[in-house]
Design brief:
303 residues; alpha+beta; Beta-lactamase; 2 domains; 5-stranded antiparallel β-sheet; 3-stranded antiparallel β-sheet; 10 strands; binds glutamine
């Protein structure tokens, strides 16, 4: 199979696409990103990496960071984490507060905002925010095999300034006893983790630990790799998770910066980036590109 040719074809198709979705505009740093950009990068099981498009341009990984934060938190707390956050798809927007009242402050899963805020809060029971962020960056850098990965402080500041919904979620969960730290402290760490910047090429490498291939960096146990992939499949695209599973058939986690990390277990770690979003806040062209890749390669967890 000629992956390089497939990638080229996808890049050409995406460059021509007239409808690129809408760039997130809740903070100026994201609103200013050129929607014309597109990148895709793939690391194969033998370690070969292939990239097309703007694969060396850093972007805000936003909610893709929830995967790394979860892996880190499970390593620190183990299955105790599940006392505070569920493992069911929410069927609602990433920042929805709706279910929290019915479900008494227990967020549905670690990949919606409420769940990710709890995951960060849980790690902060044993780490100061600065230590936690240092550890998270170390985890991501080790995963990517690249130290040139940083937090964009301007983005973190803007997230804080516009974070009313996240503050609402945090306060609401604290009212139910499911946030142990002050909302300002937990959200300070959460906003910084959202503000990690990576290139598409770096993100594809950082996903290698989820491929389930022995030669790749082993940051978590094989059982945990399978479980994180299961959560990415069922919850990684918010209320678009079912559609992503149907169209792509691979676990993926998106972010409002337009990045998606997709894993083809045993075969590849794939990162795609295009800043324009669809209705559910997932990269529009990114989704179309991985759908095309899955179709052309036949990669799917469903056989
Ligand atoms: N920083 C964003 C938020 O917390 C991340 C959401 C996302 O990427 N979907 O609202």
């Amino acid at each position: 199979m000629d992956i390089a040719a497939i990638l080229k074809e996808i890049d050409a198709a995406m460059r021509l696409s007239p409808n690129r979705g809408r760039v997130a505009d809740y903070i100026p740093e994201l609103a200013a990103v050129d929607p014309g950009q597109f990148a895709m990068s793939i690391v194969l099981a033998d370690g070969t990496q292939l990239s097309v498009g703007d694969a060396e341009v850093p972007f805000s990984i936003q909610s893709v960071s929830k995967v790394f934060a979860l892996a880190l938190a499970l390593g620190r707390l183990g299955d105790r984490l599940w006392d505070r956050v569920g493992r069911e798809p929410s069927g609602l927007a990433f920042n929805s507060i709706l279910q929290l009242e019915h479900e008494r402050g227990l967020p549905r899963n670690p990949f919606i905002n409420a769940g990710a805020i709890v995951v960060t809060d849980a790690v902060l029971s044993t780490h100061a925010p600065r230590e936690y962020l240092g550890e998270l960056l170390r985890f991501i850098r080790t995963a990517a095999g690249d130290d040139d990965i940083h937090i964009n402080q301007g983005v973190a500041r803007s997230e804080t300034e516009t974070g009313n919904r996240n503050f609402a979620l945090a306060h609401y969960m604290r009212a139910f006893g499911n946030l142990t730290n002050a909302p300002e402290l937990t959200l300070g760490a959460y906003f910084h983790q959202c503000a990690v910047e990576m290139t598409c090429a770096q993100l594809a490498r950082a996903g290698r630990f989820l491929m389930g291939v022995p030669d790749m960096p082993r940051l978590v146990s094989p059982e945990r790799v399978r479980r994180i992939n299961a959560l990415m499949m069922t919850c990684g695209h918010y209320d678009g998770s079912g559609d992503f599973a149907y169209r792509v058939g691979l676990p993926g986690k998106s972010g409002v910066g337009g990045g998606i990390l997709v894993i083809a277990p045993g075969r590849a770690s794939i990162a795609v980036w295009s800043p324009g979003l669809n209705e559910q806040g997932n990269s529009k062209l990114g989704t179309e590109a991985v759908e095309m890749l899955a179709r052309q390669t036949g990669w799917s967890v469903f056989g």
